[in-house]
Amino acid sequence: MNESLLFLIPLLPLLCAVLNMFFGMRLPRLFAETMAVTGVAGAFVLTLLFWGQGGGEGTRAVLFSWLSSGSLEVSFALNFDRLAAPMTLMVTGVATLIHLYAVGYMHGEDDYARFYSLLNLFVFAMLMIVLADNLLVLFLGWEGVGLCSYGLIGFWYRKLENAKAGTKAFLVTRVGDVFLGIALLWLFTLTGTLSISAINAQAATISPGVVIALSLLLLLGACGKSAQLPLMTWLADAMAGPTPVSALIHAATMVTAGVYLLCRFFPLVSLSAVAMTAITAIGALTAIYAATCAMAQREIKRVLAYSTMSQVGYMFMAVGAGTVAGAMFHLLTHAFFKAVLFMAAGCVIHLADNENDIFKMGGLARRGPPELFWVFLAGAVCLAGLPLTGGFFSKDGILLALFSHPDPVYRVFWLIGVVTALLTAFYTFRLVYLVFAGEYRGAGHPHAIPLLMRWPLWPLALLGLGGGLLNLPAFVGGGEALHHWYGTLAGLEVDASQEVEWMLVGLAAALTGGGWFAARWRYRSYRPPLDNAVSRFLLSGWRADALVDCLFVRPFAAMARFCSTGCDRTLFDGTINGLGRLATSWSNLLVLLTTGRLTSYLSAFAWGFLVLLGWFLLKLVNGGGHG
Amino acid sequence: MTIPFGHALAFAGALFVLGLSCVLIRRQIMMILIGVEIMLNAASLAFVAASAYWRQPDGQVFVLLLMAITAAEVAVALAMVVYLWRRKRTLVADEFNGMHG
Known about the structure:
The complex is a heterodimer. By secondary structure, chain A is mostly helical.
């Protein structure tokens, strides 16, 4: 394939997005749907065709010169390299299946053109992040996914809480984006270039203190997009969006953009041990935080949202431990099984008559098509890390990297990761038992599930289950394909003995089993939800929203009130209005002079004449010399 | 017999003050107009006297111009007086105060 055709990969979704945006409602519905799916599927096929060019040094395609000012020359360039190729394939592939699912899911929706155009636009923006060769293109995609995420979370904007959730996601991620913007501009002033590869090549010349600051700024930017502590509050509320959106944006692709960003800048970030520890710490804290929150959630999609945060925390830990291959491996398997879980959750909600509360479900295994249970279970065992599934291998690789890291503090992070794995298994099986086991506890009538909402689950479920084959570790006879594919980009080598690896595998298996047994013991026969202080605390996400409200929102509102009523209305408006009133009252006085009576004018005229005359006389008397 | 310049100016001044007094004191529009005419004639007289004193024709030329302008002014003013009379059936100047602020 000609490298100049690389631009077709993002162009196809963009084209379909624009067409749907302007003509979608005038075209037949089937045409709009087909176009949306075709755009993404076309990008997927193109990625497959381009695959060979991703190896080695990758392929770089310059489309046109975007900005040119003095020494600054920014071209709109794409880079299809070893890091981008698998990510592009995953994004387009998963997006294709989710688009197909969305066609079924949005069957009764009237406003379909807006939905499909935003969804396609999202894929375009995500591909911009993945394929960006320079910081400006990256930032374009970065902001683009934020915009589409905002539009799609608040897709049903007539319900105020949905619109609020969209705004919240937009604002919270914007905090991260500001830090990212600072980092990008700083990088530009330091290196004089916007090209990512050039910056990474010059990373060693930057002074260590600046590297730490830059890495932390990048980390904060990644935290915003990936819903990590402390910018994590938006993701659970983002579940207000349609389920395909949750599956595509808030599970498989956009929330992993932060991980991808850190992997992109790994040569820079890895120079600073402090930054690496900070990344790991953020990942570890988010992982355990989100896992505890997930244990108490009642809405099926919120459980999955918290588990997404937790799993993305694992990916951050992997980057922090220095294994880019491990992070990307978990990113890929997670994208598969979490997309399955979300899409199956959409079917489950259909079956439960649009009921989100898992305590009002139950017995859904017999209520709907039987394959739904198996597909959901496939996603769940991947998430729980059942041995031999994709999620097991990718999570195990991360825990191994943490365990064998030379720095002793990483043992603490490893321990957190292990505890999180146990909690993950527990809440996953809790979800399975509450949704599928026992008798139906709700009152709704099941909705029929369209065929398009069923079969896209299978390929993803199989990919999730077999995802381990992507990077099968050596000690079970695998080839570590992904690790070899990344080559020099894969990060640090994990140096561990066979015994340690087997020990960790055994531990992981035991944890999964333990979590399963605990969930089975607790939820096999239905028990109503606990309502004590701890569960309320976990249900509200450790009261993070209240904390943010207390720390930022309320002081900000108070300051805004001060600026509005204190400064603007009182001081400025008062001054201006006072001046106006002064002028009015003066003019009211002056109005008295214009009586409209001829005689008073005439006498005033005469008096004026007298004054003038007197003045001239005085001048004449005082010093006639002037003339 | 030649009249001294000072006498002529004094007479013109007295005439001007009389006209001004008429303008300021009377309330009837007709009387105000007559006062204005008297003031104009006083000014003309001063011009003529000055012209004779300095033996320059400019003053007399100016008086001729003034007469023409006065004729025009009186024509317009009397037309307005008729109009005002038709409006309010009165010629008291203070009745027409529609232009107050």
